[in-house]
Amino acid sequence: MTGSVVLNVTHEDAQAIDDCWNRIGIHGNKSCPxxxxxxxxxxxxxxxxxxTRLLDRYALQQDDRAQASIGVESDVVTRSLLMFRLGEEWxxxxxxxLVEVAPLQAIHSLPHQRSRALLGVxxxxxxxxACLSLVELLGLDAVTGVASAARIMPRxxxxxxxxxxxxxxVDEVDGIHAIDxxxxxxxxxxxxxxxxxxxxxxxxxxxxxxxxxDEEQLLSAVTRSLT
Length: 227
Fold this sequence. Notes:
CATH architecture: Beta Barrel
Helix content: 25-40%
Distance between the termini: 28 Å
CATH class: Mainly Beta
Number of strands: 11
Number of helices: 7
CATH superfamily: CheA-289, Domain 4
Order of helices and strands: HHHHEEEEEEHEEEHEEH
Strand content: 25-35%
Number of domains: 1
Largest sheet: 5 strands, mixed
Structural class: alpha+beta
């Protein structure tokens, strides 16, 4: 999926998938007989098929929502934002800078790394892609273990940076939501202090305070960290 495709990644969808990797796989009691052959669940066809089913469902749900919204409040201008979590903090990022939401992959460190934000590289469909720490880029305190539901799975965001795609791991993805531009304009004018760098404003959404990230400033920081 590309940036033109809007993913609706929801916790409810994840619950519909049998996450055997968390029960009998590498993150469970390791009793799965397939582990002998595959070593890690991410190498197993069952794991890949589950990810595919999830992504297919997200796309179908988004199509359904698009059909339902035709003719409703056509004069309201909205902007699509991806909501995700790092540690205990929630963030929003414009989907125009998003290429894909992918399952978590192994990160391979690099010798003599020049940037503290550069975690290493990850294999994305056979291509090695630079992997960066948003915690470091945004100047956040080190993320410690945060209690969460067993079925909430960390993700990797593939972002279209100026020099090519980069990968950033996140602790949870809530989904992509269409936000009224009037709400965003109010958030940018509110003057409420954000905890992270490169933030346009603090957005109140479904009982959460989210740092609405300035994608241009963030992508510029990504480029600097790779040079």
